[in-house]
What we know:
Low-confidence stretches: none
Order of helices and strands: EEHEEEEHHHHHEEHHHHHHHH
Largest sheet: 6 strands, antiparallel
Oligomer: single chain
Helix content: 40-55%
Strand content: 5-15%
Amino acid sequence: MTSVTSPRRGFGTLTSIPVRAFDLEKTLHSGQVFHWQKIGAGYIGAIDETAVYLEQSDRILLCAKSQCDRVIQYLALDHQMDSIEATFPRDSALREATKFSRGLRIVRQPPWECLATFLTSALKQVSQIRAISLAIRQSFGRSLRLGEHVLFSYPRPEILANVRLEDLTACKLGFRTKNVLAAARMIGEGDINLDAINGLPTAVARDELCRIPGVGPKIANCVLLFAYGRLEVVPVDVWIERALRANYFSGTTKALTNEIRTFSNEYFGPFGGYAQQYLFHYWRLNGRKLV
DNA sequence: ATCCAGGATAGCG
DNA sequence: CGCTATCATGGA
């Protein structure tokens, strides 16, 4: 970190963090977090209960000096991308996806908002997940001022546990409403301890998360990867399944979903979560061109 | 209009 | 165990 500072209208004095193999926009728009808003050359959003402004130009990331440590942690700027990518299997599909997605980081998201957000993600498009996240934040979150802007934190489980069903339904969660309420209550009552999951082996942590209604293997894996830093975990969604079918099972017409799941968490290695996210990002933006 | 979306689950055989 | 219908809602 350097002492270079730079003033930005309304966002106070910003500090420069040198970064490499990092792309802010890719990271914030890769289907991990859904609440960041583009403002001019930068982004505003909440990291937990703190309002943050972020702006990147080339190999410099700007943020408020007092928030540097938090930002570095959240954006996982400490990940050694060269070492991580060196562990990838060397096939052409992943190589292409890696070239396209380089700079994307797997963030360290607060567990509760990650869990709740992915509970709302089932059978929804990214744009709708985003709309739901913003609606829940605006309806029940804490308002945070940032210069002339107002943004909202994700409401704590104790808050959501006590909202009226119809008020949450108004956020367009559809059939997922009752699952979010149930999750908020389990955590509010201490039946599930999200902090304690940090200390559990991944398989045990996954079982624990799956006790929550609406959480199955895929959503549990998303939370393990995006909130608990289990970088070996590979969530398999419809996009990844398509990408894997097309690139690794092209001959076999009827590869079972189960086989694909088994394959994915053995083939991609100790940082399979990153490989998965690169493939997801590439495949989602480029359709089926990659074969 | 019809199909699909970063799935999970109860209910079948 | 494996398979299927179903769950709200909006976008393509």
